[in-house]
Amino acid sequence: MTRTFYPVILAGGSGERFWPLSRRAKPKQFLTLDDTGRSLLQATADRLCTITGGLDTVFVVTGNEHRSLVLEQLPDLPLENLLVEPTGRDTAPAVLYAALRVHQFDPEGVMGIFASDHRIDHLGTFVDVIARARASAEKYASIVTLGIQPTFPSTGYGYIQRGPEVEGGEHPVYGVNRFAEKPDAATAEAFLANGTYCWNSGMFVFTVDTILDAYRTHQPDLYARLEAAVRQRGAIREVFPTLEKISIDYAILEHARNVQVIPADLGWDDLGDWNALERLLRGDGDNVTVGRHVGLDTGGTILYTTNGNDLIATIGLEDVVIVRTEEVTLVVRKDRTQDIKKVVQQLKAHPELERFA
């Protein structure tokens, strides 16, 4: 008997590194960054519906403040499939919340965990790899991670070192030797040269009973408290904010011994910050421009304006990002975009500036 597949989209992120376009009221996953007319969340749902045939078995986890945005962008999503977190507690509680709810629907189900703000260009490969991951998750009672074949020594991604091959074929399945945090430049170069490391995409596949067993074993307190809250339904509002803020990587994956990885070329991009627009929209020119721009001696620059009537003029600039919205203008060197989050935190710390966050 084929088990039903339940993709879970994690849509609770704040997208602060895409500020000021991504704001507290409408973070990155609800924005449209290309010419498809579909937001990142909608594109993710479209991709998963290629596998499921519709939204009936798709779940979305989001924050209370973004509940209406999810329903607006995914009007066919069943209400019972929208899981609202009273406050964000990172991915470990979010995944467990989803697993407990899916278990109520179908204890024999297979789950997949997907970020709401990633881009995947190779849809056929993605569908094939998910099918392989589902089969391996069922056969070995394993937690299957999707690894991304690295194309450069990134210091912005976590890494997975693959172990011995479990099964061969077009998309081989491997054991996992270790997870590695975001490395410095020299370590990233060594990982790339080693050839056994792949980027950690944050996408996982497992059966419902496998992941619940993992939480019982490695996070018994988290499991006990959230399981009781889900049974009582109304208790979620009181219990969720008291849970430890921890990622599934730290809580489960780094402790579990039944983890596998499938390295794949998915045409994947996590669209982590403004530099992603260069990969997304790069044309033949020296700059990436959305909106009107007149430049003199300007190169390697990303320019974005939300008002088509506005004009950005630049002189003598190299390798910078300029973003102009209705209320905010951001100017940042491309090698400092990771620090945008620090500016947002400063805004949140000052009541007179908080509305800009």
Give me a quick take on this structure:
With 357 residues, this protein is an alpha/beta fold.
Describe this structure in words.
- With 357 residues, the protein is α/β, with parallel strands linked by helices.
- The chain folds into two domains: 5-269, Spore Coat Polysaccharide Biosynthesis Protein SpsA, Chain A (Alpha-Beta Complex); 276-356, no CATH class.
- The protein is built from eleven helices and 17 strands.
- It has helices at residues 40-52, 67-73, 91-105, 123-140, 185-194, 208-218, 220-232, 236-239, 248-253, 276-281, 340-348, and strands spanning 5-10, 59-63, 82-85, 110-115, 119-120, 143-148, 159-167, 173-180, 197-207, 259-264, 268-269, 288-290, 292-296, 302-305, 311-315, 320-324, 329-333.
- The strands form four sheets. The protein has a five-stranded mixed barrel. Strands 12-14-16-17 form a four-stranded mixed β-sheet. Strands 5-11 form a two-stranded antiparallel ribbon.
- Strand 2 (59-63), helix 2 (67-73) and strand 3 form a beta-alpha-beta unit.
- Helix 3 (91-105) crosses helix 7 (220-232).
- It is globular.
- The model has no long low-confidence stretch (mean pLDDT 95).
Uncertain ranges: none
Task: Tally the helices.
Answer: 11
Q: So, CATH architecture of the largest domain?
A: Alpha-Beta Complex
SSE order: EHEHEHEEHEEEHEHHHHEEHEEEEEEH
Please state the average pLDDT score.
95
Q: Which overall shape is indicated by the principal axes computed on the Cα atoms?
A: globular
Span between N and C termini? 50 Å
